[in-house]
Amino acid sequence: MTVTTTTDYQTIYQQLEKSFDNQSLLFGDQINPDFGHDEMESFQHLPDIVVRPKTTQEVALVMKLANQHQIPVTARGTGTGLVGGCVPMEGGILIDLSAMNQILELDADNLTLTTEAGAMLKDVATYASDQGFLYAPDPGEKTASIGGNIATNAGGMRAVKYGVTRESVRALTVVTPQGDILKLGGKIVKTSSGLDLKDLFIGSEGILGIITEATLRIRPLPKANTSLMVPFDDFKAALGTVPKILQSGIQPTAVEFFEADSVKCWENFASQEFPQSGAAAYLLLTFDEQSDEIIESDYEAIAELCLDNGASDAYVLDTDELKKAVWSARDTFLEAIKASTPDMDEADAVVPRSATAEFVQYTHDLAKKEQIRIPGFGHVGDGNLHLYICQDDYDDTTWKAKLSTVFNALYAKASALDGKVSGEHGIGYAKRNYLKNTTLDADLVAMRAVKTALDPNHILNPDKVI
Q1: Would you state the CATH architecture of domain 341-426?
Q2: SUPFAM superfamilies annotated for this entry (predicted)?
């Protein structure tokens, strides 16, 4: 890529001034440091220019100018990523899509909701719910943008029943690196009309094009829901029960797993006792249906199944207070672990569901071998585990060395179990080498060929993924 000088960026800024007002254009000292990192803050680099477009056409205008001058461009939503995916590692232009946050239409007849990419997940979900519909994807970070969710193919707790974000995307508007505007998919439920380019951009982490608008699948809002918390004295029994639950013919909405170390972190963080604390491991399940009768039948059957397979008890979270207490704890495990250590980093590995017990046992053995703390929890209904390597008392040099050793070992083990590096957070900048080390060369060549075909000047989100 041609390296652009500071003088060049001054000229580019002056060209952009012709199309954007002062509130939509930042340069030099005007740029807030937050634009130089994501939620983890592990990687930091400021852009030279920040543009805040309000329309797809304005995004296209920026891309045409950037492609003409071969300037690196990075798209950003709300910056909640954990792998440096929205960090402009080569500077250049950062396109901040947060102003493109309008929900455009809810089409009840076609069960779709159309929104701009900068709208937050929580706002889209609330809007749908207020109209009597469910937008099913439920990643943990509710302030993430819809465009960011689509770019990483985010999963979340409800993926076991409703699938990941990909399964809820009907159509996309995408701006290419050359500034062309693509309209992919539609309100249609199926199509066999040429290459499925829509799905190519889902999960592409902003290296192929910039998503500006999405038409999403919605569903009738379930009329009944409840949660079931099941403690176990042994994590292997808990994880060994998960395939049996999924084979039972009953479809939970979520199947979450966590261990005593995560509970202890939360208790220290929240200064309160976790409901029914004291177990070695827990399964936390939710069920949603259109009637209380179906819900009751489902959770009673699953509770019996768990008790038959080693559970010490099964608690129906049948009051709003109890449900809120347990789920608010689960939702803040990450925050609690982060508060327990000077620094940490995360492995977002995914393995076949039948291999989760072996993988968790491996993390325990690795933590003991390397004398480092690795608390974790995960969406075991789909084999996605979040493991946090904690710095604790190690100095920075030792910590970085330990981190590299542990990451290499974890991802190698996941790969050996037919798993993958990331289940939902993406590769971004942080996990590139781990993807390279666990992926066939031919697969990487094919990925790079797609990137080069769509972005021959390699200006879009450089240094990411591949």
Answers
A1: 2-Layer Sandwich (3.30)
A2: FAD-binding/transporter-associated domain-like, FAD-linked oxidases, C-terminal domain
